[in-house]
Amino acid sequence: MRAVAFIGHSGAGKTALICRLIPVLLARGYRVGTVKHVGPEVEPDTPGKDTFLHREAGAERVLLYSQRLGALFWEHLGNPVEEYISRYMGDLDLAILEGFKDSAFPKIEVYRGGEPLAGRIPVLAVVTDRPARVPDGIPILPPDPELIADFIESEVLAD
Fold this sequence. Notes:
Layout: E1 2-7, H1 14-27, E2 32-36, H2 50-57, E3 61-65, E4 70-74, H3 81-89, E5 94-98, E6 107-110, E7 125-127, E8 140-141, H4 145-157
Parallel strand pairs: 1-5, 1-6, 2-5, 6-7, 7-8
Antiparallel strand pairs: 3-4
Helix pairs in contact: 1-4
């Protein structure tokens, strides 16, 4: 399983780009999962609901399961995200991360404005349709999901 993180300033279009990229990768036969980084103030469960109350009571893991969807909640106590990506997405071809700019994963910056992260953070490429000053040697890709999929295939998924 391989992974690539899409990083960029808030509002740069990371989510929209990922949502356009996923169907392209699926059409090429890849099994894809995603991981979204959120701040510590975000509670992914619903306070007051049964799963939340189970966690609050001390359950180590709570699996929410319906005929259509499932979700697993747990207090990870700071274990690295790499551990969970490997455990829960290891059977997939690619994990696409949104955020995680400080991780060791290969990164692609989505740039819309402000100071580019490229140069301060190592990136494989910058995706933008605007002029951007990035260090020499960093490819600039248009926000075209087919071209980005080509890039990911050659730089991340190639053996």
